Amino acid sequence: MANIIGNNFNNNLRGTPFNDLMRGLGGNDLMRGLGGNDRMFGNLGNDRMFGNLGNDTLDGGFGNDTLDGGFGRDRMFGNLGNDRMFGNLGNDTLDGGFGNDRLFGNAGNDFLTGDNGKDTLVGGLGSDTLNGTNDILKGAGEIDILDPGVLDARRDLIILGTNNLVAIPNTVYYTNPGAVDYAVIDNFERNFDKIVISGQFNNYDFNPFNGIVHGVNIVNGTRISFGNETIAYVDSNGLLGLNDFILGGNL
């Protein structure tokens, strides 16, 4: 395994066909992993990281970073900054961290988490799971766009409440009192995609909605409310029903 370490300037770091450890340190770095299962850490600066072949781990660190997993089952973490992340081919895990991030799963069965900030999550091809926030922050004061992607007749999961994938149960996202926080779910494919909610179905209200929300034109959709809080607007091609949802404990 090669240890490839940059410095506090702008570096062009290139890996080997084997498993590499790459650290960019300071500066706006370009890091390319080639083959092998590589680990890349951008640290400070606005970095560009490309895993290429192998099951890679990419961590952007501080700054507005661009992460591209390439081929393989990759894990990517944006951390601090407004990051762009691309899973490309393989079943990938993308976590935006803090900041207003844009995550694209592309091909494969991907797991996308926006965490804190106003995030855009696009699943792409495959059966994807889109989670705009996390079970601690609950989407407080943020607007997330969750897009399962193209109509591929595959089941995608859109998370609006905690479920058996997370540690803290019975939490409904986007319910911070007085805050402007909700999810906009675009390109929801009924009969295939599912929305995961916490608690009981009868705790929610579902009303027809037409209009433009955060840049998404919803012609024939649904507004989902929990109590007095709107938690989601869904481009759903008609009013959603029970078959479009999964209760958190029933995954």
Structural account:
- By secondary structure, this protein is an all-beta fold.
- It has 2 domains: 1-90; 103-251, no CATH class.
- The chain is 0% helix and 37% strand.
- The strands form 2 sheets. A 12-stranded mixed β-sheet has the order 2-4-6-8-10-12-14-16-18-22-21-20, with no helix packed on it. An 11-stranded parallel β-sheet has the order 1-3-5-7-9-11-13-15-17-19-23, with no helix packed on it.
- The mean pLDDT is 89.
Task: Name the helix and strand elements from N-terminus to C-terminus, one letter apiece.
Answer: EEEEEEEEEEEEEEEEEEEEEEE
Please give the radius of gyration in angstroms: 19 Å
Largest sheet: 12 strands, mixed
Instruction: Tell me the β content.
Output: 35-45%
- Total DSSP E strands: 23
Arrangement of strands in the largest sheet: 2-4-6-8-10-12-14-16-18-22-21-20
Q: Give the termini separation.
A: 40 Å
Number of spatially distinct domains: 2
